[in-house]
Amino acid sequence: MQDLAEMFTRYRKYIMFLLAIYVIGWGFTAYQSIFLGLILGTVISLYNLFTLARKNKQFNEAIEEGRKMRSLGTLSRMAAAGLAVLIVMEYPDKFHLVSTILGLMTSYIVIMIDFFFQNIRK
């Protein structure tokens, strides 16, 4: 199995590439609220991926040392997603709700697509 840090680095590169495309779309198209929603959701999704990778590393270290781990941070990831939705609800003229929710799912979609391509590669 591949190292978690290697996979996280690859996911981070893909998400940054998507964010660059979203910023270009926001700057050069008439769909600014949709792209701004995608940017907001994807940034929160990237933050959630950071926290998940960090908690997973801590979990692995705790298992190696024989300690127990309380949580993998599900509540904080849900709170971050809730914050994104609250921002969208506060500024509905700037952000598009559906695109923000799609942006929140970006890291999971990237993980699934990467898994598919890595399996084809092997």
TrEMBL record:
It comes from the Bacteria. It is found in: Cell membrane. The keyword Ubl conjugation does not apply. The chain crosses the membrane at residues 12-28, 34-53, 74-91, 97-117. Keywords: Cell membrane, Membrane, Transmembrane, Transmembrane helix. The keyword NAD does not apply. It is a multi-pass membrane protein. GO terms for cellular component: plasma membrane. This is ATP synthase subunit I. It comes from Fredinandcohnia quinoae.
